[in-house]
Amino acid sequence: MEASVLDLRYRMKEVLKALERGEEVQLTHRGRPKGSIRPKRTGSDGPRAAEHPFFGMTADADESVAETMERLRGGRAV
Known about the structure:
Layout: E1 2-4, H1 5-10, H2 12-20, E2 25-29, E3 32-37, H3 65-73
Parallel strand pairs: 1-2
Antiparallel strand pairs: 2-3
């Protein structure tokens, strides 16, 4: 959904209904995009850890998760 600043003032009910349907609302001011409002995620519809690309990629590796993270982060400059 696209909404202007005036829409937020006069048609807030419609904007809230769009958010309840899971739609992202694009905000415009004088016809130019200014930002967006996204619906709040609940715990059940957020991303799952098992779907993350890093999950399970080192299942057969010899190093621990802590060692892998340390290697990926690299040393810290002093």
